[in-house]
Design brief:
Number of strands: 5
CATH class: Alpha Beta
Order of helices and strands: EHEHEHEHE
CATH architecture: 3-Layer(aba) Sandwich
Distance between the termini: 23 Å
CATH topology: Hypothetical Protein Ychn, Chain: A
Largest sheet: 5 strands, parallel
Strand order of the largest sheet: 4-3-2-1-5
CATH superfamily: DsrEFH-like
Number of domains: 1
Strand content: 15-25%
Length: 121
């Protein structure tokens, strides 16, 4: 069984529910002692832009997105943010929250090529 897990998230502003569910699952993977990475692409890059997660609250039974993001980062989860997707949206590295790292598709490929399971939202 793999010791790693990957969640890809392509929504934030366009579908807060998918962003929220992605972070719920990523936190569950961390809780299951999996080395967990979230790869944000397309509209999902906003999950890691300062001030954006605070705007997403899908309501009970889910915690607000900002709480889920903070829990994930504080527990040692890795957040990689698609560099070309950031550039397309005018987001710079300085605009990212602490714990988020700009990365290209190669980082995702490397993570998955070691046998990591992955889910997408």
């Amino acid at each position: 069984m793999a010791d790693t897990f990957c969640v890809t998230i392509t929504h934030c502003r366009t579908d807060g529910d998918k962003a929220t569910l992605g972070f719920v699952v990523a936190n569950a993977a961390l809780g299951s002692e999996k080395d967990t990475m979230i790869f944000l692409s397309s509209d999902g890059v906003y999950c890691a832009a300062k001030g954006e997660a605070e705007k997403v609250n899908e309501g009970a039974p889910f915690a607000p997105l900002v709480e889920l993001v903070n829990k994930f980062v504080n527990a040692g989860g890795k957040i990689y943010v698609c560099t070309p997707c950031m550039k397309k949206r005018g987001i710079s590295e300085e605009d990212l929250i602490e714990g988020a790292t700009p990365a290209g598709g190669a980082a995702l490929v490397e993570w998955l090529s070691n046998g990591s399971p992955s889910v997408a939202y």
